[in-house]
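lol so apparently i was supposed to do this last week
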Amino acid sequence: MAWNAAAYDTRHGYIWKHGVGVVELLAPQPGERILDLGCGTGHLTAQIAALGAHVVGIDNDPGMIALARQHYPALRFEVADGSSFRRDETFDAVFSNAAIHWMRDPAGVVASVYGVLRPGGRFVAEFGGKGNVAAITSAVYAAMRPYHPAPESLNPWYFPSVGEYAALLEGHGFEVTLAMLFDRPTYIEGGETGLGSWLGVFAKDFLAAVPLEAHAAIVADVEERLRPTLLHDGAWVADYRRLRIVAHKSPG
Ligand code: BEZ
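anyway here it is w/ benzoic acid bound
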């Protein structure tokens, strides 16, 4: 999906801000070589670099990479597909925050990560896990149904369970040392209009399948369905659930 990189950067800054805890889990050491997979506009890449690591950020969206380079001209950013990237160099760690749920070939992602790690290297990632935005998704399906016969078929997201993702990692040769799924209710910026803006960015694949004239009615319907549970004191709180993992490539 093509992103509006500027909107992502300004209105949805909470995405990378929540990733600060994942950087702490990564615990980059000075001099380590680290790949930031799905780096977006580069803010966490820069935090990793500030801790003394040599970091390369990759993202499949040229707009994101352009903005990342603009923000941090001294850092390395490249456009690359998360499911099929290869590198001549190897890395001590691959880091990823809030990106893997957009990648449609999870086995390709894990194989690519494994391929670029040095023996003993680590993979530290957080993304949407099983049940992520379940209430929002149900409301979107219901609001879309008058306009589309099978809204479920439009769902672009990959939100695996702990068991599913750990099995995928082990099947590719990783040893999984941490895998946890947890609720992380997430405040959406923008007050009462925030959910509409969120849908315009995150649920773009659903809305793109119906005529533009239907979008406002669908968004209004989703808001009505979710108002009783997700609107708190004039602010939307999305029902995020995160899957956090640490996995190691065998020392060889
Ligand atoms: C998330 O970051 O949890 C998310 C990503 C895509 C769609 C919905 C939620």
